[in-house]
Design a protein that fits this description.
Oligomer: single chain
Mean pLDDT: 85
CATH superfamily of the largest domain: Winged helix-like DNA-binding domain superfamily/Winged helix DNA-binding domain
Distance between the termini: 44 Å
CATH topology of the largest domain: Arc Repressor Mutant, subunit A
Shape: globular
Radius of gyration: 20 Å
CATH architecture of the largest domain: Orthogonal Bundle
Strand content: 5-15%
Strand order of the largest sheet: 3-5-4
Helix content: 25-40%
Number of domains: 2
Number of strands: 5
Structural class: alpha+beta
């Protein structure tokens, strides 16, 4: 199946998928978060073919998610390290892991993380960055943002409730 590019799609989720939506990519990012930095270690852990691994690492470097840092000259070999952009995938990866733990791990989570502050295992929780209150699916309302310059994100002016109860105000702008 030919891969579709989302490069021209005016959607932040599509733009994220353009960078990390290919098969293997988030597993590579996961491994970097776990301390894996070298090509041979990725290849051994994932069982991925060398040409596909090379393509995914190259794409992650080009997208600014990883940097390559040489550790050997002859032959040239590199460590792959997360950039700030890469580290910002932490909540995305954590949400994916927790979803997998809940729906695809009948024997329990294969990996647990402990908070270094208190030493306990934890589950992430979304909170409002303004007031600190917990935020669930039914606690939000979607509005056109400043990036909807041509009004294409929302084409009609009405309030709709989508699947899961997210209310979207379509058309027009706020303030």
């Amino acid at each position: 199946m030919e891969r579709k590019s989302f490069a021209d799609m005016h959607c932040s989720v599509a733009q994220c998928l353009e960078v990390v939506g290919e098969w293997w990519t988030m597993l590579i990012v996961r491994d970097v978060f776990l301390g894996v930095t070298r090509f041979d270690d990725f290849q051994r852990r994932l069982g991925i073919s060398r040409n596909i691994l090379n393509a995914r690492l190259t794409r992650l470097v080009e997208a600014g998610v990883l940097t390559r840092q040489p550790y050997q000259d002859n032959p040239a070999r590199y460590d792959y390290r997360l950039t700030d952009k890469g580290r910002d995938l932490w909540p995305v990866l954590t949400a994916m892991r927790e979803w997998g733990d809940r729906y695809a791990a009948p024997d329990g989570p294969p990996l647990v993380l402990r908070h270094t502050g208190c030493g306990e295992t934890f589950h992430t929780a979304l909170t409002c960055s303004h007031c600190g209150e917990p935020v669930g699916l039914r606690d939000v309302r979607a509005h056109a943002g400043p990036g909807d310059l041509d009004g294409t994100v929302h084409s009609t002016r009405r309030e709709t409730t989508g699947v899961g109860g997210v209310t979207a105000v379509t058309g027009g702008r706020e303030g």
